[in-house]
Amino acid sequence: MNTTDFFNELWKQYTTKAPSAQKVKSLFEEEGNTVFNDHIAIRTFNDPRINIDVLSRVFIKMGYVSKGEYRFEAKKLYAKHFEHQEDPNAPKIFISQLLLEECSVQLQNIVKLLLDGVDQEVFLQDDLILKGRVWKTPSHATYTTLLEESEYAAWMYVNGFCSNHFTVDVNKLSSFDTLEQVNHFLKDNGFQMNTSGGEIKGSADQLLEQSSILADKIEFEFEEGKQNITSCYYEFAYRYPKQDGTLFTGFIANSADKIFESTDMLLQKS
Ligand code: OOG
Ligand code: NI
User: Fold this and answer.
1) Phi-psi region of 46 (alpha: psi -120 to 50; beta: other; left: phi over 0)
2) What does the alpha-carbon distance between residue 237 and residue 4 come to, in Å, rounded to a whole number?
3) Would you give the distance in Å from CA 213 to the centre of its chain?
4) From 3.40.50.800, 3.30.70.1350, 3.10.180.50, 3.40.50.300, which CATH number describes the 3-267 domain?
5) Whole-number mean pLDDT of the chain?
6) Which residues line ligand 1 (CB under 6 A)?
7) pLDDT cut 70: percent of the chain above it
8) pLDDT tens, position by position, 69-107
9) What is the distance between the alpha carbons of residues 93 and 53, in angstroms, rounded to a whole number?
10) Using CA atoms, how far apart are residues 198 and 218, in angstroms rounded to an integer?
11) What is the C-alpha separation between 141 and 138, in angstroms, rounded?
């Protein structure tokens, strides 16, 4: 599969889980914009079978290189971002992993058993991140147990491998000059913003401003029956130039920490 097909397929799967993203993109297009994607993000556990090193392989093959690393103490997460070596228009890739050894033994056992139950060949495939949840049907009881300890773990348990968000490159929108204007437009159209840490995370000083709408809620078939879960969300990023005049391409840990919460059910109003 070539790079374009890969990202198209990823977008297709993402928008089935996050129909709001498709709606927002269409609204921007109706205003005369062409929408470019700044980055995508993938979540995983740091089990050696599916850790960042494993999930990034497919991108390395496409010509991506590792550029930055980030640590989220409270959430027990570690992340890396990747950029394409030649193509500055290729979306950046942000991959995070839950540090299992810092979690409870109970959580570690849940994840280990889950992964042990999967045909191990699946983890070696290049299109793993297009496969969604590759383990057995989740139980709502286990979901609740995970949720008490880590929203990230619970989200991963039901959603599996995918792009949990795409990101509108606000610099390239023709009908908006600022992220504030974008947020205003989103709220006018009835979308709920992630307000954790403020509607806009980051600043011109930090060379990156970000906002996101809350993840869509979808009905999910657990072992015990149907329940709502959060799926994927849409992000908006505005980048500022560095001293050398080129745009900053990294991420800001403090902002990312709050962006993660876009999938937190507790932030949802209704
Ligand atoms: C990633 C959150 C961080 C950013 O742009 O800082 C992020 C996630 O929700 O998995 O995307
Ligand atoms: Ni992001």
Assistant:
1) alpha
2) 22
3) 12
4) 3.10.180.50
5) 97
6) 41, 43, 94, 96, 164, 210, 235, 251, 255-256, 259-260
7) 100
8) 999 999 999 999 999 999 999 999 999 999 999 999 999
9) 13
10) 25
11) 9
Closest CA to 250 of 209, 210, 212, 208: 208
Q: Considering only CA atoms, which residue is closest to atom 4 of ligand 1?
A: 256
Please list the alpha-helical segments (H only) found in 18-169. 19-30, 52-62, 105-116, 140-149, 151-159
Hey, which of 235, 238, 239 would you mutate to test ligand 1's pocket, going by the most ligand atoms within 8 Å of its Cβ? 235
- Closest residue to atom 6 of ligand 1, CA basis: 256
Q: What pLDDT, on a 0 to 100 scale, did the predictor assign at position 270?
A: 57
The tens digit of pLDDT for each residue in 52-61 reads 999 999 999 9
pTM equals: 0.98
Question: For residue 96, which atom of ligand 1 is closest to its CA?
Answer: 10
CA of 196 to the centre of ligand 1 (A): 13
